[in-house]
Amino acid sequence: MDPDNPNKRRRLSSAELLDIPEDGHPAPLDESGTIFAVEELLADDSNTTADDSTTTVTQPEETSAQNDARSCIESVVRDLLATIEAMEENEETSGSEAVTASSAERSTAMTMFCETPANATEGSEEPMDTLPPPPPPPMDIPPPPPPPEDAPQPLRAEALPPPPMADLLPETLKIEPFHPLQKFYQPFEGTLPTVATHKIRVQEDINKDIQFLRNQSVWAALTLGTTNPTKKGEKRGQLETISEKPSDPGVIFIITRHGGRTCLATPLHVEVCVPGRPDLFYVTFSNHSRDRKNGDNIDVNDYHEGDALYVTKLVRRPQQSFEVVPTTFDNVTDPNIHKFWGIDEFFLIERTNKVAATIRLPGQAHVVGKVECIASGIGQSVFGPKHLFPEKAGGNNKPRTKCLARIFVPRLQPGRVLATIAGPNAKSTVTEMAHSIINETHVYPWVLSAVQLSPAEQRSFDSLPNVFTTFRPGDNHGYNALLSGTLLAFSGVLAAGNRDKDLRVYLTTIQHVHTVRGKPVVTFAIQGVTGPPSLQLWPRGARIRVDAPEHLVEMELESAANEAEFVVITARPTTSKEEILNFVSDLKNRKLMVYQKFEKHDYQFRTFPRQDAYQTIPRTAPIKLLLEAILGGPRIPDQPIPDRNFDFTLDGVRPSDEQRQYLSALLHTEIPVIQANSPFGVGKTLMIVMALVKLADRDRCSEAIHAATTTTNTATVAIAETLIRVAGSYNLRALRVISATNHGTVDDKQKTEIDFPTLWPRVFRKHAEQADERMERCDEIDALSTSVLAHLQNNDQLHGMEFRSSKIRKFLTQRQSPALSLWDAFLQLYRPHIILGTSATLTEAFSHPHPLSTLSTFVATIQVDEASQFAMHALISLGPHCPKARYALIGDINQLEPYADVQLLEEMKTIAVGNLLKKATGRVQAVNLTRVFRCPPEITNICSDLFYRQGLRAQRNPILDHPYHTILRFRDRFAIQVVHTQGLHTRSGTSLYHADEARMASQMVTAIRNQEPDADIGVLAFYKAQAGYISKMPQFNNVFIGTIDASQGKEFEVTFILVSRSNAFRTPQPAEAPQVSRRQKRRMRPANDATDFIEDTRRINVALSRTKRLCVLLVHEESARTSDIWSRLLDRVPRAATHNGWRINI
């Protein structure tokens, strides 16, 4: 209540309750009217007894006079309430006056009952305006006995007596001395967070706050709110907020729905609703709510979705009967059933605002009156009022143009479990009870205001993507524009990854567990409130979490399909830890929680360069020359490459003349950037390793470091394993940078002996053994050795080691903390010549304060493998850390470029994702590799003709033995065998699958496995749904299954290409087929599936070129023949190598 209110700590008189002015006519009650002050409602007025199992509240016996008075008044009140109910039923015919009278009479009845003095007798009556304030009811009730020492001590909530007429209330509205789930929680202990929202959040108590409000609402149910639902508020603009938890008990609610005049708020913590209070899932926030810091006459439009309100009092909304109170959790998330409760008093918790460049996305807004935006440094969608982004031609506010916005970023999301929950078993119990409301609603950042960019800022953004067409090369303003624009675009990329996610929590039971490709795969079904969740939100490859009491397991979704009212999902763990895999294997019939992970992207923004990152780099630095060349600046001039016929072999292989030219460019010139156009199978991995070995061997005595980076762990492992295999005699120190967390999640096949988590224990153990030997000649253990020993001991890496030195043995008994960090000690013992890692890993490792950042300025060369997949933002982020490094871009512009969300603006895709290799083509010096060693000559020649303008040369001799052809009974020995499929595909969300095609592929894979158990087989699908469908089939166990896009960079002995589509690959244009209607065109293709997906020559090229022996192409010929590129491909396959699927007999 308002601190200036003199009635704050006393009961209100009847006249005050009715707000009777001096003229004697009662004014309408407003929503702030209450019967008791909260402090008095919570006075000790009951006898409380507690033991280990139950807690009871006992009322003292009344005197006979009190009993008679109470009985009489109860009878009068019940008769009066019955009359009022009848009047309300005739409300349509009675008019507004009847409604007002009903409300006043009901309030009067409540006042008569609750305000009657304890010593009243039948017939006693005084005028309402002269009735003295009666003593509080608790005064004549003896104090409760002290509770046992081990009993919880809530803040007075246990003393609240049942309200008058409690039997009229719904059965869920009842006073409880303690929260029913209190045994699962413990008091908060520890250091409070510094952020206001989190500081207040962790202090919210299960009894003192949550149960307090639950009990207060029971009393509030008998108090009517205002009869003026259209109260006009007063806009204030700047609002006062709180940064500390008030002394008043209260609960945090989050505004989740904003309707202009009223809003709905949802509890931050599910314990407010669970168990038994579904009615509190939504409460109304309106102009009648009273802001304890900003006054009574508020305007809800000063508040926004995501605002955190510390609510101290709820109120019954006007004209709402008990029949509208939800009493079950059925349809609890439907806002239309929540009309009973309103927020009476609250504090606004401190907001977090951010000023950022913002751009509106095109298309329809998700909600009327809102528009969707992306903003710099925010990795999720941002929404704002439509009037700030009017759709008018020209000016700053037209769609797709940028502005500078002040954005409110919510720090709390509703539907969470209290932070003080005591352990995983307790959490499992509570989340199971609350699964229907956990994470049910997500609130997004909100644009508070927007201003036009300055002319200079507008010029910077308009210069994108070809920045150095507008700005002179070397101009710092150009690099500022580049970083600003890239950060905005990169934020859009990250936001797109979070947009299409189902953030609800689902309670499910694991139906099956089976082992596929060495890992357990679980099957479960999920169901939404109104039916099955959208398949579009559960795509193959999505990261999900399976939450059990023992472990929180990260999984990757394999498949999802609709079955009746459910979506049936299969998923496999992302980790390779034996403990987790064994745990997952035993999950059958276990009930647990499943949800998708919302990515916060703190790491990506933390490692993105600062605005001045490029200003200190010399004008002639290779990274600057490269960025300027590909973004509108001058081309990097060519330099002569000497033809050195050096004697050099690795793994018994001599470099070809083309590879030698690449090696010479790195070894014998100072060319800042070299591009190696490397189609499939030309030996680029071995060429990269050759360059690393020769460069590191040459610079062995200097501080120079040579690095290679990729976009995937698979490509990094290929380089690392080749390096380990062929460079042993050179005695070079190589390091693959990978965090311990990621190392624990990757498959064992993606681990190598030079991985940091594997390498450091070996290096430390060797040093510890040497230190033990030296101690015979030394008096003290040096600081480095103590740190090494401490790290080995703290990480349980001393097993099997025995030390002769008594000083070392004594040191280990003391268990001291290491003086040096793990990385610092490692780098003193093992300064690498060669560093490998993904672009994201190296960017983080070279960023301050990581210890490797001290070595980044010594990086002399960086070879970028699979450069066609290397995103622009990755290059821009890595560049400032290695200013002296020369670059080599190795890749194939005729293969797939980085993935970009289809909803991204084209200008966003270009600057954030782009195609680095394609942009560099013609702008930097290049060498061409054309000799293909991987594929059979037939496949090399077909790909050369279709995709490389006859630029490839097959170097592999014709294959004489054809074991896989024989097993599959293919009489013709051509390297491509086409199997024509029958039947129709089935839609699955925006994707599709083909059951008959999958069945035929499984038969052929099984035939090969039966005779060649160790055959290296890859099953490649054009569509995610087909990959997911076949992943569930046991015949494909221990076989690579993935989309064409996921297979780039891999190779197999045998590949099966599943095209799956059974309708036209190419939609006829109106000029070609004017009789085809627009509706028919839509039916001819899957939803959201552009024809260029199936006809993308880069995707077809990748699919065909993965094989080393045999490629089996399963395709619907009639549909494929509608496409020119597919017709040309099929025409290149001999008729004898084509088969009708139904005739396949294996």
Strand order of the largest sheet: 14-20-17-18-19-16-15
Strand content: 15-25%
pLDDT averaged over residues: 83
Our count of helices gives: 35
Q: What is the CATH class of the largest domain?
A: Alpha Beta
**N/C terminus separation:** 83 Å
Rounded Rg: 36 Å
The count of domains is: 6
Do you know the CATH topology of the largest domain? Rossmann fold
| Uncertain stretches of 5 or more adjacent residues | 1-63, 90-145, 151-155, 393-399, 1070-1074, 1076-1090
Helix/strand structural class: alpha/beta
Q: How would you describe the shape?
A: globular
Name of the CATH architecture of the largest domain: 3-Layer(aba) Sandwich
According to CATH, the homologous superfamily of the largest domain is P-loop containing nucleotide triphosphate hydrolases
Helix proportion range: 25-40%
The major beta sheet can be summarized as: 7 strands, antiparallel
Q: Work out the number of β strands.
A: 37
Question: In words, what does this structure look like?
Answer:
The structure is a single chain. Helix content is 30%, strand content 17%. The chain is an alpha/beta fold and 1146 residues long. It has 35 helices and 37 strands. The protein has six domains: 14-30 and 61-140; 182-348, no CATH class; 506-597, Thrombin, subunit H; 616-733 and 831-929, P-loop containing nucleotide triphosphate hydrolases (Rossmann fold, 3-Layer(aba) Sandwich); 758-827, no CATH class; 937-1143, P-loop containing nucleotide triphosphate hydrolases (Rossmann fold). Strands 14-20-17-18-19-16-15 form a seven-stranded antiparallel sheet, with helices on both faces. The relative contact order is 0.06. Mean pLDDT is 83; it is low at 1-63, 90-145, 151-155, 393-399, 1070-1074 and 1076-1090.
